[in-house]
Amino acid sequence: MPSPDPGDDETPAHSPAIELRAVTRVYRDRPALGPIDLAIPAGEFLTVVGPSGCGKSTLLSLVAGFAPPTAGTVLADGAPVRGPGPSRGVVFQQPRLFPWLSVSGNIAFGLRRLPKAARKERVAELLAMTGLENAARLKPYELSGGMRQRAAIARALAPRPKVLLMDEPFGALDAFTRERMQEEIRDLWRSTGVTVLFITHDVTEASTLGTRVIALAGPPGRISLDARVSEGLREKVEAAIRDAASARAA
Amino acid sequence: MNLALRLGAVLFLLAVWQVVAWLKIWPPVFVPEPVAVWDQLLRTSTEGYSGHTLAGHLLASLRRIVLGCLYGIGGGIVLGLLIGVVPVLRTLLNPLVTFVRTLPPLAYLSLLVIWFGIGEEPKVWLLLLAALPPVAVATADAVRGVHDDYLNAARSLGARPWEIPYRVVLPSALPEIVTGVRVAVGVAYTTVVAAETVNGVPGIGGMVRDAQRYNQTDVVVLGIIVIGLSGLLIDYLLQTLDRRLVPWRGRHI
Fold it and tell me: Which residues form the ABC transporter domain (chain A) (predicted)?
């Protein structure tokens, strides 16, 4: 599958925010992903779509550094990923907020090394960005599903990561909240300039939310489509997933 | 409503007790009258028994329970954390903890008396050994049960490896640890009477044992009731602590 160079307007000397070179991942003798080559230029909003079990989450955990690739290299800003770190924020499908901390406390979790005043300022900034000003002192179990996921996004953005990795973050939300959250994440992406890697199994979400979409077919997950988001793309994405599904069934 | 129900139940039991005592099916040495126990409550509270007032006996026992539990809980949390986090230690220590947990406290009391004499130390040690295993087991299980997402989230937010145990693992495990603490305090409570069978005066257990020697059944019954009631009170306090420490227990998060 030819991959259109998405980094047209990037200077070639600039290394991509994330780069995967011939990456494969094997879980207990079962290939889960790859080989995959993928470059995500800084500032891109990339959605990854595919059926469950195709290796989407594996891709994300490799980029996050939660697991090492079996072969190949994962690079963040040109340097090999050796583990999780604050340059790559993660939002999980479940908010996974720390229930013993308030919303503010959760957001401040990754700001330990800031002086107190700067930390407070940064927390206030993120509360405002995510519309949680009035929820600062609330505990996670006192929030609605949408607010929880907003707090999780604020927590992940707090240490100013270069890349925001999102693993089906709106999958557990109701349709109405999901639509609003999609708007909000686009706004956050525009205002912060963070590079987004967004995993979803929702074709509509994948083909409308970001600037570029890749479809994964698997296991083992491989890129079956890599395209810039444009009019009429949704049908193409759907077709790619259907083909992959029927190929797997055959 | 609940309070009325409970009060009613207590009054009913007292009434049954009184009736059985009146019928004199068994001599008073077996079933003393409630009034006799009440008299003993007043007498031991003012004049004392075996040289100490009831409050003195109770405080001595509570002091042992508190000390034994504090050491046991502290040790149990550290041990549980180690067992939960370090696989080698799990293999080594898990059977040992289970071994100690299944032993009845009286089985090692004699050994503790040989080691530490008949003062306070063997009693506190006994309670420590009784309180430690439940906390250690609960902590170890909870630590292993912490969802990977929490650990990954913390690491992605820049937490250093040595920060993870106290910033994420322990607070995540807190609900189970607090439950373990409640079990531990309960076990310590049931053990204190055993601990006080050797030179246990002052102490509620020592008082009961002395009374048993002189067939003062009313004092024995009084001791049992005092132990039970103070146990109820302590469990109530622990429940309150639970709600304070773990307000998210049972809630979807």
Answer: 18-245
